[in-house]
Design a protein that fits this description.
Layout lengths: L3 E6 L5 H8 L7 E5 L4 E5 L5 E6 L2 E3 L4 H6 L8 E8 L4 H19 E4 L30 E2 L3 E5 L4 E2 L3 H12 L3 E6 L4 E2 L1 H6 L6 E6 L3 E4 L5 E5 L2 E4 L16 H5 L7 E11 L9 H11 L5 E3 L6 E2 L2 H11 L4 E6 L6 E10 L2 E12 L10 H11 L2 E10 L15 E7 L1 H6 L15 E3 L6 E5 L8 H14 L2
Parallel strand pairs: 9-11, 10-12, 11-13
Antiparallel strand pairs: 1-6, 1-7, 2-3, 3-4, 4-6, 5-6, 8-9, 13-14, 14-15, 15-16, 17-22, 17-23, 18-19, 18-20, 20-21, 21-22, 23-24, 24-26, 25-26
């Protein structure tokens, strides 16, 4: 049984149904509230946590349960109530299943996964042993060492849930790495992939052939000295480490013809009380897909209908602390962006990483890229922008095998960056094709096109030459 369970209900779980769920282990288990009541825990007699339950989340964005759980969902809006059992405790897993089973039965709805809610009867917890504190100090942490926090996730897609986001923050504040361990069939949400910091943080995939490997690099791993580390080859030297690569990762998957159009950009706005944030993302989304984003949120699932004003209000309330949000599209046109909003000495910065997915019979609308770039350059204080085309899944999730790199399709330098560059360097480049001007002639941004063919990696050589040239090296 999975360690995470979710109840999807049309009605909000009322206090009585939640209490009934919490009594899954009988009246002897202790109940405690944390995070100002947003998190409820069941404890054993020694105060060790068995089950953590998040406050119900109202989801108003269609397709999130299918994207993250592979589950059928009620018509929006609906309530998403998530619980996590302490790893390695059979009774805790049964408690989690009984909890969501009772919620779904009393309120009306379904439980994920289907096999979780096999019974709504009282679970026998006599004589069980739970994970001691501090290993379970964070709801999502399964193993805690002096080097890393280890999270075990058994779900179709590892998403940036509220408690995983809390774990990211807690690990960073404690100066620990974060290692996410999953079975072979699990994928990462792009939001988690983008947030995962460098070594010693990594995605650890269980594999029946080699034991464990890094889901992003393919390096075979082993547990040593309190963390997962790369397995050293007996022939390794300091100059040539010869890191063994998992066969499962290297084989990857056959090219299905699916593609992604990946866009990353930064906008730097003058600090102003009248500033409205999120407009840059919406402009690109409209140019590429013909419609605005479907929803957004400060975690996954993205639960709020798209709203520039609400996003701006959240960012202003959190300032001067940074704000991170996820933006999603519809199931018909998969799209996902992460946006980091930061107040700096230069103004208010929006760093955006965005991707759209296309099937084998669909062509990414690359002709719309220049229009999107011009919208950013003329209306949204664009600093720079990079567009790539890559062979990758239409649903945008990150699989634990080699997909191959994207290739540059276009790079854009904002008008202010062009203006401050010495001489005519921005226009006189080593590329075969001259840059195109975007915006007013008196203060243009420059658009640098590349071939954008996923089978031709020479585009990266052109891009590197351009970067060296613009830096004056």
């Amino acid at each position: 049984m999975t360690k995470d369970v979710v109840a999807l209900t049309k009605k909000m779980p009322d206090p009585l149904s939640v209490i009934a769920g919490l009594l899954s282990g009988g009246p002897d288990l202790l109940v405690g509230a944390e995070a100002e009541g947003a998190l409820v825990r069941l404890h054993d007699e020694q105060g060790r946590p068995l089950l953590s339950v998040e406050a119900p989340l109202l989801v108003q964005v269609r397709g999130e349960a299918q994207r993250l759980l592979g589950a059928s969902e009620p018509e929006v809006p609906y309530w998403w109530t998530e619980a996590r059992a302490t790893t390695g405790v059979k009774e805790a897993e049964a408690l989690a299943g009984t909890f969501v089973g009772r919620i779904a039965t009393l309120v009306g709805g379904t439980a994920w996964p289907r096999g979780a809610a096999t019974s709504i009867g009282v679970v026998n917890t006599e004589g069980m042993t739970a994970v001691p504190v501090p290993a379970a100090a964070q709801p999502a942490v399964d193993v805690l060492t002096d080097k890393v926090a280890v999270v075990i996730q058994d779900r179709p897609v590892v998403a940036m849930t509220s408690w995983l986001a809390d774990t990211f923050r807690a690990a960073a504040e404690a100066e620990l790495g974060l290692q996410i361990v999953t079975p072979a069939g699990t994928r990462l949400s792009p939001a988690v992939r983008g947030a995962l910091p460098g070594w010693p943080s990594r995605w650890v995939v269980q594999d029946e052939k080699c034991g464990y490997y890094d889901g992003l690099s393919g390096a075979i791993l082993q547990w040593a000295n309190g963390l997962f580390v790369t397995l050293e080859s007996p022939d390794a030297t300091a100059e040539d480490p010869r890191t063994p690569i998992a066969e499962t990762f290297a084989q990857g998957a056959a090219d299905t013809g699916e593609r992604q159009l990946a866009v990353s950009f930064r906008c730097v706005h003058p600090a102003d009380d009248r500033l409205v944030l999120g407009g840059a993302v919406e402009s690109v989304w409209r140019e590429i897909t013909g419609e605005p984003p479907a929803g957004w949120g400060t975690e996954e699932p993205a639960n709020l209908p798209w709203s520039l004003r609400q996003l701006t209000d959240v960012a202003f309330e959190r300032s001067p602390e940074p704000t991170w949000v996820v933006v999603v599209g519809t199931p018909e046109r998969p799209g996902l962006a992460t946006v980091r909003i930061t107040r700096t000495t230069a103004g208010v910065e929006e760093d955006v990483t965005l991707a759209f997915g296309y099937g084998a019979a669909e062509e990414p609308p690359t002709e719309a890229v220049q229009r999107a770039a011009e919208a950013l350059a003329t209306r949204h204080d664009l600093q720079s922008m990079l567009v790539q085309v890559r062979r990758a899944r239409r649903d945008l999730s990150v699989p634990p095998h080699f997909e191959g790199p994207g290739v540059p399709y276009a790079f854009v330098l904002g008008a202010e960056e062009v203006r401050t560059m010495p001489g005519d360097r921005a226009r006189r480049t080593p590329l075969r094709e001259k840059p195109r001007e975007l915006g007013p002639r008196t203060r243009p941004a420059l658009y640098y096109p590349f071939p954008g063919d996923p089978s031709d990696l020479s585009g990266w050589q052109d891009f590197e030459r351009l970067m060296r040239h613009l830096k004056g090296s």
